[in-house]
Amino acid sequence: MSGRRVSKKAGRLMTIRFRRIGRGCTWVAERPKRIIVPGPTMAAGGDLPHDLYTFVIEDALGLTYGFWGCVAAGATFKTLGRKRTPQGIAVINHHLRELQTAEVQVNEIYFAWRAREQTSLDQQLDDMLDRWRSLQEGDELVVTWPIPA
Choosing a second label site near 73 at 20 to 30 A (CA), which of 34, 37, 51, 122? Predict the structure, then answer.
């Protein structure tokens, strides 16, 4: 599924656990050295949760420093359940242009897919939607993201 550049250090992955909570979703990411990044709770209904479709699209496009690459690199966004740090803010500031470009790309693809317009990522999004919909209350969908080198 991935077009991303992977860190040359083997095993340097961030694990993300998306948990179904009723008609919503929450997630927790774990970076190396057991650094826990709690994500927000978000609505999903019968659709893909926002951060999960962002993952699918950024992964498939090979976007190293979109939202998920920045989280993996230590970004501390206001929307996440951790204290913002100077280092985390610096990651965001350093990759702000890439983050903004990724957000535009993610939104264009996602909203076209939702409108049933053909996109290059229909299969990846359809497959993840099937995986998401198969989860029962409290079940987790686990994905990984390589830590940028």
Answer: 122
Look at residues 128, 148, 149, 132 and name the one whose alpha carbon lies nearest to residue 140: 132
Domain boundaries, the chain: 13-146
pLDDT digits (tens, 9 = 90+) for 56-103: 999 999 999 999 999 999 999 988 877 899 999 999 999 999 999 999
Long-range contacts formed by 45-52: CB under 8 A, 24+ apart: 46/133, 47/114, 47/129, 48/125, 48/128, 48/129, 48/132, 49/18, 49/24, 49/25, 49/132, 51/18, 51/25, 51/27, 52/18, 52/25, 52/27, 52/128, 52/132, 52/141
Q: Which residues pair with 18 in a beta bridge?
A: 27, 141
The single-letter code of the amino acid at 44 is A
